[in-house]
Write a structure and sequence with these properties.
77 residues; alpha+beta; 5-stranded antiparallel beta sheet; 2 helices; globular
Length: 77
Amino acid sequence: MAEQYIVTYDTHGLSLEGRKFTQKQIMGALAEGIFRPGMRFRRGRAEFVLTRDGLVPRRRVEPERSEEDVNSGEEET
């Protein structure tokens, strides 16, 4: 059985969140104009974004350093 991708974010209001598709189905729907770039998918713990060229891994934003990390030590009053 082909690996399935779960829709996690649907930018176009098709109410597809939670539905599963194979990569072949996703690429076919993209070619037909049903799916559009920007949709997000998940396979296991990995997240992907749909582009015109296909599914690409989604980069996670690194959490910004907290003020405590920046001000290592006591605050001045």
